[in-house]
UniProtKB/TrEMBL annotation:
This is Germin-like protein. SUPFAM superfamilies: RmlC-like cupins (SSF51182). Belongs to the germin family. Oxalate binds at residues 102, 107. It comes from Crotalaria pallida. Disulfide bonds join 23-38. It comes from the Eukaryota.
């Protein structure tokens, strides 16, 4: 009986522990390196843990014939603080997700449809490439340059799972040729011909 009396206050004191089980993002507040502030528990609903955005095929009518639909914390507040997020990749025939990095996360690529050639470049410049079919998965380590290309003449799609609610993204081509990075410095640091740099900037909308 004494043990029961001792445990009862402890059970009562932890009966509201679920408020610490998650931290649904308050997107009206600042996004800090530690994540968003938590929405008050009284305002959290089941809808905060459901996201339907990846059910819709992305628009691939663009320069790269591909689309990436993110489900990061900014789109899916329930991910805040949980260490994961996702995205959908849609590639038309000839579609390509250019060389890019996710500074804040590793990526697990899961092919849903078609064939996708994926690969990454390690820090010692070793290249790892594989053409993946439906159901196959490929790991892309955090921070390394990587890419995805539709293989063959069919469209393809995949889901990506990241080890962060906000993995970040930097596309190499856009960083070089869609920015105001001065063209002489682009040429000097990449060994590209100045005319080629000018051409690429005109295609991607860069300046400088």
């Amino acid at each position: 009986m004494l043990h029961i009396l001792f445990l009862l206050p402890l059970l009562l004191s932890t009966s509201h522990a679920s408020v610490n089980d998650f931290c649904v993002a308050d997107l009206k507040g600042p996004d800090t390196p530690a994540g968003y502030l938590c929405k008050p528990p009284t305002k959290v609903t089941t809808r905060d843990f459901v996201y339907s955005g990846l059910s819709v095929e992305g628009n691939t009518s663009n320069l790269i014939n591909a689309a990436v639909t993110p489900a990061f914390v900014g789109q899916f507040p329930g991910l805040n603080g949980l260490g994961l997020s996702a995205a959908r990749l849609d590639l038309a025939p000839g579609g390509v997700i250019p060389l890019h990095t996710h500074p804040g996360a590793s990526e697990l690529l899961i092919v849903k449809q078609g064939l996708i050639t994926a690969g990454f470049i390690a820090s010692d410049n070793s290249v790892y490439v594989k053409t993946l079919s439906k159901g196959e998965i490929f790991i892309l380590p955090q921070g390394l340059l990587h890419f995805q290309v539709a293989y063959g003449k069919r469209k393809a799609s995949a889901f990506a799972v990241f080890s962060s609610p906000n993995p970040g993204l930097q596309i190499l081509d856009f960083a070089l040729f869609a920015s105001n990075f001065p063209s002489p410095l682009v040429s000097q640091t990449t060994f590209l011909d100045p005319e080629q740099v000018k051409k690429l900037k005109s295609v991607l909308g860069g300046s400088g």
